[in-house]
Design goal:
The structure holds 2 protein chains of 2 kinds. By secondary structure, chain A is mainly beta. Chain A contains no helices and 11 strands. Chain A is 0% helix and 58% strand. Classes of the chains: A mainly beta, B mainly beta.
Chain lengths: 112, 112
């Protein structure tokens, strides 16, 4: 969905490096999410935010941190990347409790 | 805690035949249920959802799903498959719209 953008789309980094993945949305949604996708495991929730002042850990938050800079922006950081963080990362937004989630195109991350 | 099972990693069907992609879930209370589709190198796209009301839900691209509370299932169906339906399909469940949990995905291949 073009209303949710992610940068970069692809990234190769080395073990121990700090990297940031960025997500922006123009849908005006309060809720934003970060997921990682690994083959055969579906999507796993890393962090989610229901508004600018509300940040919550998901099921696999260890090794990750987030920042909600504005309603439209939600960044994911890997403070010290490790190879098992190699995955496809998705940002998503939703407008409320029963609302559909809208996904960005994903960031493919390779940690060497 | 919520969980979602998609018992088939892969479903193969001939073009023009009906298709079913299975999903079972576990959640306390009333579930919110979703189906998403992922095409290669794309983010997830919403197909349909069940929140309340009629157990048969109709969604995008001719897909439908039936909520069965007694069997805790939400199978995705389409009367006549198209080659262009070939993709990865994810079932998701949440409780009151929070803490979405995705299944591992089912790869659908529609053969011409």
């Amino acid at each position: 969905d073009a209303d949710v953008t992610q940068t970069p789309r692809n990234r190769i980094t080395k073990t121990g490096k700090r990297i940031m993945l960025e997500c922006s949305q123009t849908k005006g949604h309060d809720r934003m999410y970060w997921y990682r996708q690994d083959p055969g495991l579906g999507l796993q929730l890393i962090y989610y935010s229901f508004d600018v002042k509300d940040i919550n850990k998901g099921e696999i938050s260890d090794g990750y941190s987030v920042s909600r800079q504005a309603q439209a922006k939600f960044s994911l950081s890997l403070e010290s990347a490790i190879p098992n963080q190699t995955a496809l990362y998705f940002c998503a937004t939703s407008g409320g409790s029963a609302e559909t989630q809208y996904f960005g195109p994903g960031t493919r991350l390779l940690v060497l | 805690a919520q969980s979602v099972a998609q018992p088939e990693d892969q479903v193969n069907v001939a073009e023009g035949n009906p298709l079913t992609v299975k999903c079972t879930y576990s959640v306390s209370g009333n579930p919110y249920l979703f189906w998403y589709v992922q095409y290669p190198n794309r983010g997830l796209q919403f197909l349909l959802k069940y929140i309340t009301g009629d157990n048969l839900v109709k969604g995008s691209y001719g897909f439908e799903a039936e909520f069965n509370k007694s069997q805790t299932s939400f199978h995705l169906k389409k009367p006549s498959a198209l080659v262009s339906d070939s993709a990865l399909y994810f079932c998701a469940v949440s409780r009151y719209g929070q803490n979405f949990v995705f299944g591992p995905g089912t790869r659908l291949s529609v053969l011409p």
